[in-house]
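lol forgot to send this yesterday, sorry. struct tokens for the thing we talked abt
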């Protein structure tokens, strides 16, 4: 039962953090109508996820902390449903070059930063 509470609490904090970063702190950073806020959130979340996974491999983190951080906080923080909606918005606006750039950058930079974070966590 504790694991569910930790995941739920982490998820609520993660979604609040994503909302704050994407709607207040990063909202003013718009680069040629490009959805920078969610891109930054996904990259940051992937980076932190990688660090935690590296730490987990060294058995330096408890199961409860893992549930709270990975399955709660970061799962809610880096949701790709927002990413998908931003992509649809670009499609509706017929900004196809920006759509391709956004999708490629979101996926490739998230994977790269997750890998970097993983190695830092080890």
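and heres what i got for the seq, position by position
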């Amino acid at each position: 039962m504790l694991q569910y509470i930790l995941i739920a609490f982490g998820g609520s904090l993660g979604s609040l953090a994503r909302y704050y970063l994407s709607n207040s702190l990063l909202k003013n950073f718009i680069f040629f109508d490009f959805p920078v806020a969610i891109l930054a959130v996904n990259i940051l979340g992937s980076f932190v996820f990688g660090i935690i996974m590296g730490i987990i491999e060294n058995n330096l983190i408890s199961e409860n902390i893992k549930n709270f951080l990975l399955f709660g906080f970061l799962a809610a923080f880096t949701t790709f449903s927002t990413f998908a909606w931003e992509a649809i918005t670009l499609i509706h606006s017929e900004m196809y070059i920006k759509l391709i750039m956004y999708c490629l950058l979101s996926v490739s930079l998230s994977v790269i930063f997750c890998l970097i974070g993983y190695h830092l966590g080890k």
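Residues 2-121 form one domain. anyway ping me if u want another try
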